[in-house]
Design brief:
A hairpin with a 3-residue loop joins strand 4 and strand 5. This protein is an alpha/beta fold. 36% of the residues lie in helices and 15% in strands. The protein contains 17 helices and 15 strands. It has a single domain, classed as Alpha-Beta Complex (Amidase signature (AS) enzymes), CATH 3.90.1300.
């Protein structure tokens, strides 16, 4: 299999070739490695590959799930495969090796994927762009020097550029959906509790973070949700799940739904007119399918809520980094941490239990305000990001003049305005590449639903995939064009 044959397939498409014995898992791994070698010097999306899973792959070690033999990249944050390096995009953790694996990796392996390496992420996933002092900047496949988003930017850039068909992503404030929006991919953040990350880590970020994949087709998202939505021993709670597999439900039309089109500037960020137009067009398409679409209001408490979320996210952040430093034999400081993370590390020492509980209360109030939306509507429709991809330098962790004091306002407000509400609520949300901006960059449109209602999102997403197809779009920095 050559690169031009390999790159157009989604994950299930490649797995079907393996099942038919038209290609072997080792051949897929080798072609993926060739694709990475061709495109990564331009995109810088992959920070490590695993030779033992490529040329030396033992195919008998692969699971027999629906993705058997499909190459996948694990994100350099919370991938946690025992014995492999995990560096959190940070010089502080350079060379650090995972001591205990995760249920997530176990379930991915059972799904049949072949984990062939690590994708780039910003330091500790604390940025909406993948720009790093340790590994450098990841480029958007649509334009060199533009952000691939974050924090799963390396994963989505690798998928959109054709290096791999699927990649692991995680999302605490939009980190699956933002890269999907900026790169033109499919990004689903599942409901809180849907995908286990145990046993060492409980709920990531006090329950605000979820793990899943970056992909390019709805059917890959649905099939992988079937593979990863299995409660594990000791999980703190188990949420409802349909009796019918998600892959099957995604092929069925959704019932007629009430859609709320959210135009509210939740933290005062103006929306690009072309982004707003794309959302409105998506609403018209849904109305044409028979759904009721109304302009809706949502309230998360404004910028004060974002500041409270920082106290939640960074409570004991200093202790966490101190623990990493002990394992890696390093020391937190301006030489091992990027300037903003160093500032946040120091500021974390001042977050008292009383401040943390006040933030927890603020998040509860915001969750109740936001949750009222679903007393009126079944589906939230909005932009994913208020703007399309921008040049490097706007949101990275070394941005001059940014400290813990103004971090939320400078780095998170613009990209996370429409994504973080769904982390606060714990509700499923999905970014779809439904339009292109006149400047040549993708526009992501977000749909979201009540807790545990991923099936509705998958059904609407599949309908969009037919009505507003994106499969034919190939970015300029694609492996088929960079492989010579």
């Amino acid at each position: 299999m050559n690169i031009s044959e390999y790159a157009p397939y989604d994950g299930l498409g490649l797995a079907e070739l393996v099942a038919k014995r038209e290609v072997s898992p080792k051949e897929l791994a080798q072609t993926a490695a060739q694709s990475i070698a061709a495109a990564n010097p331009t995109l810088n999306a992959v920070v490590e590959t695993y030779p033992d899973r490529i040329d030396k792959l033992d195919e008998t070690t692969l699971g027999n799930g629906p993705f058997r033999g499909v190459p996948l990249l694990i994100k350099d944050v919370f991938g946690h495969e025992k014995g492999r390096r995990i560096e959190f995009g940070s010089r502080l953790c350079k060379g650090m090796v995972v001591e205990a694996g995760t249920y997530l990796v176990d379930m991915l392996k059972a799904a049949g994927v072949n984990i062939i390496g690590r994708s780039a992420a910003p330091e500790y996933s604390m940025s909406a762009t993948t720009e790093s002092a340790l590994f450098g900047n990841t480029s958007n496949p649509w334009r060199k020097g533009y952000s691939a988003g974050g924090s799963s930017g390396g994963a989505q850039a690798a998928v959109t550029s054709g290096m791999v068909p699927i990649a692991h992503g995680s999302d605490i404030g939009g980190s699956i959906r933002i890269p999907a929006s900026l790169c033109g991919g499919v990004g689903l953040k599942p409901s809180r509790g849907r995908v286990s990350i145990g046993p060492v880590v409980d709920e990531g970020g006090f329950g605000y973070s979820m793990n899943f994949i970056q992909c390019k087709t709805v059917r890959d998202a649905a099939a992988m949700l079937d593979c990863l939505s299995h409660p594990q021993p000791g999980d703190p709670f188990i949420i409802p799940k349909p009796a019918t597999p998600y892959a099957q439900l995604a092929r069925q039309p959704a019932a007629k739904l009430k859609i709320g089109l959210v135009k509210t500037e939740l933290v005062g960020v103006k929306v690009d007119p072309e982004v707003a137009q794309a959302v409105e067009q998506a609403g018209k398409v849904l109305a044409g399918m028979g759904h009721t679409v109304d302009v809706a209001e949502a309230d998360m408490g404004g910028e004060g809520t974002l500041k409270a979320m920082e106290d939640l996210f960074f409570f004991a952040f200093d202790s966490r980094l101190d623990g990493y430093a002990r394992r890696a034999g390093t020391k937190p400081g301006p030489d091992t941490l990027e300037p903003i993370i160093w500032s946040l590390y120091q500021a974390a020492k001042e977050i008292t239990p009383a401040r943390f509980m006040a933030a927890w209360s603020a998040a509860n109030i915001a969750r109740r305000k936001l949750g009222a939306f679903y007393s009126r509507y079944d589906i939230w429709l909005s932009p994913t990001t208020s703007r399309v991809s921008e040049p490097w330098g706007n949101y990275n962790l070394s941005k001059p003049g940014v400290t813990a004091a103004n971090n939320a306002d400078e780095l998170f407000k613009i990209p996370c305005q429409y994504t973080i509400p769904h982390n606060i609520m714990g509700t499923p949300a999905m970014s779809l590449p439904l339009a292109m901006h006149s400047n040549g960059m993708p526009i992501g449109v977000q749909i979201a639903a009540r807790p545990a209602a991923e099936h509705l999102l998958l059904q609407l997403a599949a309908a969009f995939e037919q009505a507003m197809p994106w499969a034919g779009r190939t970015p300029p920095l694609h492996v088929s064009k960079l492989s010579g």
